[in-house]
Structure formats: C-alpha cells, structure tokens
Amino acid sequence: MRKNIVAGNWKMNTTLPEGVALAKAVNDALKGVDAKCDVIIAAPFTHLASINEVIDKSKLGLGAENCADHVSGAYTGEVSAPMVASTGANYVILGHSERRQYYGETSETLKEKVNLALANNLTPIFCIGEVLEERENGTYLDVVKTQIEDALFGLSADDFSKLILAYEPVWAIGTGKTATDDQAEEMHAFIRNVIAGKYGNEVAENTSILYGGSCKPSNAKALFAKPNVDGGLIGGASLDAESFMGIVTAF
Ligand code: PGA
Question: Distance (Å, rounded) from C-alpha 76 to C-alpha 164?
C-alpha cells in the first residue's frame, strides 16, 4: 500500500545555523509522537550535509529542492544528483512550479533530472499543477495530464513506482488560497487514473500523491481525509517546527 507522507519544502529560506536548528527542532519533536506518516524535510543544498549529521534518518528523511540535469562538468553554479546523494540526502524535489516559472524548466530537462535522481538512489518528489488561468478556463485536468505524460511516461513501471508525486495548484502556493479538499480529491483521483491507464492499477494504487499549496495545520486534516490525498508538500508552514508538526499529526 502507498505511504502517507508529509514533506517540508523550505525553499530559499534559513541561513545554515537557522536551518540546522529547525531540522533539530523537527527531529526532536518527532521523538515524542507516533507519526502516522513518513516525514521529510527538503532544504537548501548548502544545509544538507550539516542537517544529515543532526537528524535521525530512520524518522526524518532529507531531500534537496532541485538537482542539475547533468552529472558533472562545466555547469557553473549547478549541483548534481551524485553531489546531493553524497550529502546523505535521499530525496529531491523536481519540477516545482517556481523552478518551471522562474528558471525555465521544461519537461525535457525534467526528464533528465528524474533519470539522474533515480540513477543516484534519490527519490524524486515530482511536482505538477496548473496556473489560475488554466483552473478558470477548465483545462486544468488536461494540463496536469500532459505534465505527467511528457516528463514521466518514458519511465519503466519499475522506475515510475519509485516516484512520489505532488499536486500543487500554482494559484494556491504561498497565496493562502488552498484548494478545497474536493478540488484536491478530484485532481488526485484523476492523476491516479492517468497513472493506471499507463502503468496499471497496482502501480497507480501504490503511488503516493501529495497535495501542496497553503497547506497548514488548520486545513491538513480535511485534505488528508480524502481517499486519494496521501499527504502534503508544505512550504511556508514547514519553516516553523510547531506548525509543521501540526500537519504531521493531522494523520
Ligand atoms: P506553500 O508552498 O505551502 O507555502 O503554499 C507549497 C510549495 O510550494 O511546495
């Protein structure tokens, strides 16, 4: 059966000492609860090796927020999947809408990133989601289907099974405007159907699909109660250990 997962996406926040302190706080808070989900934090590249030293990885997973679409070489400023893996991280967020929007990431580059992540034993948390205009003009289901097909449907069933998906409606990210639990459920059920159409029911049923976009302790319970919502990818509310734990314990 698929896992329930709550993953924090810190984005470009926290200095190294602040990030290490936040990771320690989450790690310590987890000791006191019987979490009904896997818990992951995705932090800036600069923080990964240090955070890896201070957390109990059997309770708290560690991920990067991106990786390069090349293994090594003359790509100034880039960080590759093998480099991420060498810090001790096990996950990598790929295809976040901010990467697509501000850094021009396309399905073509994302295909490479997914392949390199998998080749380096990193679990991709692959993000998809429509912008407001696509929600309003009714094309949102098609948009998300195309994002999945273009970047991921070249994978074998075996490799696809290693992915975590995150549906993040762009209009809900950092805006305080959450998708309703029914809107999330409609999309998550649709995504599972799209996966089933390509890889069969077993793969679809075993794929964790997280919701992201202004998820917080006050709305997490209703979202996670939906049968096809398997957890959350949390931005703003993951920057405070207490609010992040409020979402973790919503399961
Ligand atoms: P948010 O971000 O929770 O701050 O809306 C979610 C995300 O972008 O992953």
Answer: 29
pTM of the model: 0.98
Residues of the domain holding 155 = 5-248
Q: How many C-beta atoms lie closer than 10 Å to residue 66's C-beta?
A: 21
How many Å apart are CA 11 and CA 136, to the nearest integer?
27
- Atom of ligand 1 at shortest range from CA of 98: 8
- Give the residue numbers annotated as catalytic, written as ranges: 96, 168
Nearest CA to ligand 1 atom 1: 235
Q: Which residues line ligand 1 (CB under 6 A)?
A: 9, 168, 173-174, 212-215, 233-237
CATH number at residue 121: 3.20.20.70
d(CA 133, CA 146): 16
Angstrom distance (rounded) from CA 84 to CA 37 = 24
Q: Which atom of ligand 1 is nearest to the CA of 212?
A: 6
Distance CA 71, CA 242 (A): 37
* Contact predicate 175/214, CB 8 Å: yes
* Phi, psi angles (nearest 5°) of residue 215: -80, 135
One digit per residue, the tens of pLDDT, for the chain of length 251 reads 899 999 999 999 999 999 999 999 999 999 989 999 999 999 999 999 999 999 999 999 999 999 999 999 999 999 999 999 999 999 999 999 999 999 999 999 999 999 999 999 999 999 999 999 999 999 999 999 999 999 999 999 999 999 999 999 999 998 888 899 999 999 999 999 999 999 999 999 999 999 999 999 999 999 999 999 999 999 999 999 999 999 999 99
Number of separate domains in the chain: 1
